[in-house]
Amino acid sequence: MSRHFITVLGTSLYTDCIYEVEGTGFGYRTPFVQMAVLKYIMPVYAQGDRITVLLTEKSEEKNWYTREYTETERKQLAARKMEPAPGEQKTGLKDMMEKEYPDIQIENVRIKEGRNKAEIDEIFESIYGVIDPEETIYFDFTHGLRNLPMQALTVIHYAKALKKIQVGGMYYGAFELGEKKEDGWLHVNLLDMSACNTILDWTSAAESFIKGGSSNQIKELYKETVKPRKEQQNTTKMMNHLCDLTNCLNTGRGKKGATDTNEKKSIQIAYNKFDDFYNKMREDERPISEAPLIRLLDHIREDV
């Protein structure tokens, strides 16, 4: 699967800081968060990888192209003790990307500002239109208006269903929470917000179970997102027995002979085994990241 990095370019006067990913040792100094995300997700790039930059007319003028600093900008930088040298130009994101990634397709796409419903609809279409089928999407929504993260999330969830894409990561540079350290630089956490997308996946799985009685989507999502380990065998067995139970219910396998022990052929046996491992699973210590799964299983347990 090819990788596709999609980002939104803002209009502010960005200055150097060090973007870090907690627990990885990664750190990269740059004025543009986009470059930090790229360095993190694509330390080595491959054929088919590509970059799309979404920008408004104003952000294109301010930050896409290399240009002269305005007098106002020079005064702002001087106040931050970062005044550029005489004649020094403000390097645009376009030149930075082309220098670091000369062999990757880089496309800039003009989008609306989102001032009304019509413009919001156009933004949805613009984002959806740049996504190709069956690629892995990395989205940076650090900049742009605050409605954009919600729009990006809905577009990506929509494209997962229609274009069979995968989500590699969704990133936000928490600049406003940055901390100045002994080296004199502002250090900013680069946060992966993919959990928001995962919660939407759990929502779809829950809806599939509630409306259709199928637990297959729950089981598949569990394998993809939780990545079962040996110490989670109670949960894994419970998921298997939940599938046995719903399959029995959907096919009406209600009979149970005196010597029957096969949970795939009896609602009662499947339920007993599901209930047994559900209780064992609830006794285990669970990480907070599994909260959507646990709440869904609690709901199922109450209803069956």
Keywords:
single chain; 304 residues; alpha/beta; Rossmann fold; nine-stranded mixed sheet; two-stranded antiparallel sheet; 11 helices; 11 strands
Write the layout of secondary structure elements.
Layout: E1 3-8, E2 17-21, E3 26-30, H1 33-41, E4 50-55, H2 57-64, E5 67-68, H3 71-79, E6 89-90, H4 93-100, E7 105-110, H5 117-130, E8 136-140, H6 148-162, E9 166-173, E10 179-180, E11 186-192, H7 194-212, H8 216-226, H9 233-251, H10 267-283, H11 291-303
Parallel strand pairs: 1-4, 1-8, 2-11, 4-7, 8-9
Antiparallel strand pairs: 2-3, 5-6, 9-11, 10-11
Helix pairs in contact: 5-6, 7-8, 9-10
How would you describe this structure to a colleague?
The longest helix is centred in the C-terminal third of the chain and has 19 residues. Helix 6 links the parallel strand 8 and strand 9. Strands 1, 2, 3, 4, 7, 8, 9, 10 and 11 form a nine-stranded mixed beta sheet that branches. Strands 5-6 form a two-stranded antiparallel sheet. The radius of gyration is 25 Å and the shape is elongated. It has eleven helices and eleven strands. The protein starts with a strand and ends with a helix. It is an alpha/beta fold and about 300 residues long. Helix 5 packs across helix 6.
